[in-house]
Amino acid sequence: MTAHVALHLTDSRVWVRYGREEWDGPVAMDDAAQVQMAPAWFVDSGYCATPDRAVPIAESLGRILRDAIGEVGCRPPAELVVATYPTNWGTARLNVLATAVRSFANEAEFVPIAVAAARAAAARAKRAQNANTVVLEIGAMTTVASCVGQVSEHGRVVACELITDIGLAACSVRRDELVEVVDTVIGSRRVDALVIVGDLVATDIDALTDALSSRTPVEFLAARDLVRHVGRPTVSERQVARPEPVRNIDWVAAAPADRAAASGSPRSARRVRMLAAAALVAVVAVGAGVAFAASREDRHLDTADPAATPTTDTDVGELTLGRIRVTIPDGWRIQSSEPQQPGQLPRLEIVPIAGPERRITVTQYVIRSDLDLEGIANVLRRKVDESPNEANYEGIEADVVFAGRHGVTFRENPDGRSQVRWHVMVDRDTQVGVGCQGLFGEWDALSSDCERVVSSVVISP
Prior knowledge:
Blueprint: E1 5-9, E2 13-18, E3 21-26, E4 47-49, E5 54-56, H1 57-71, E6 78-85, H2 91-102, E7 105-112, H3 113-125, E8 133-138, E9 143-149, E10 156-163, H4 175-186, E11 193-198, H5 202-212, E12 218-221, H6 223-230, E13 261-262, E14 271-274, E15 317-321, E16 324-328, E17 332-336, E18 348-352, E19 358-366, H7 373-386, E20 393-402, E21 405-412, E22 418-427, E23 430-439, H8 443-456, E24 458-459
Parallel strand pairs: 1-6, 6-7, 8-11, 11-12
Antiparallel strand pairs: 1-2, 2-3, 4-5, 8-9, 9-10, 10-14, 13-14, 15-16, 16-24, 17-18, 18-19, 19-23, 20-21, 21-22, 22-23
Helix pairs in contact: 1-2, 3-6, 4-5
Organism: Antrihabitans stalagmiti
Keywords: Membrane, Transmembrane, Transmembrane helix
InterPro entries: T7SS_Rv3446c (IPR023840)
């Protein structure tokens, strides 16, 4: 198996591993753009000023990370990059990182630091993968406290708080405040371990361990150990609860849903309380079929997503979403229209208002502009060959005309009861997939609505 590049990114430093080679250094000093401070510090503004021009943060960060992977002997473009990111980051920030990584990688996966740390600590301690784990990410200037549940598969962040004025220099002196934050994150949950991640010295580790150990066992995970775990082949295995949508060659685009900050914490105005959100790993996979609900009494489809967007009432007509415009057929309603994974633009799911178990899914991704339909088909074939669910996919064909639109088509059989027929279209750097899912033998009844959706798609530049 070809080694992938592991990147562990914090607010001021990056650790890299490729094969047996490791390197770490500051996320700063972009000589090409004369940026002398960490681009990550400017991530919210999108640009940093230099004497000559305003430099896009993604451009500067991309150069720095490209140089970093060169330090471990990886010549761009890297085949696969698995990157961690601060758990409190939302869509806008992760978009910047995704754009930066896309400049030197063919494929990418993104993992919240808390999820990666919980997995690494559980593997090291041979702890059950369904345990609740609290993770403290202590950075140069800030600390993020999170509770991670369901460490296996994607991992799920169920609580997250950001402390904006406690970092490495003050973490041991102000440890009582960190204890207070940990208590808030734990709430009424049973927690099996607390993992501290950061570039801490021994005295700080001892002080924090003493302060926190009365609540739950405390473990320290050095950054180099975290990036080593992220660099293991098992981290990037395609372990998903269900087949996921066909991805573009870059496999990166947007981010998890923003963890919106609630203004003011009852305990401290410095804290930014983050809404509980599912923090899912952006994995490379194909397909988006979802197993139908086991009970025929429930006419809705089982989304298998505990944080799914609530369904809406009747929605008929034209809808603009991300880069696309699409028409909702009569008799259908919107079930969700949010990104489901890190690195994705909004994804639309519609279901019948009443009647049979059916679903139409519309996905959209940013891809390399030099990819044509044959290139997309080749990538898809390769991903199917690598997938543990290879037998679920069949009939991949390039340049098939359906509903008057040229595209890549294939069929997915996710659950033994239903089939998804996919039509994937490409316009410049945008890939749009329409998947029409119905019970076996019911394609004739679904095909006309599927054609209406496919023919209505308008891709904006």
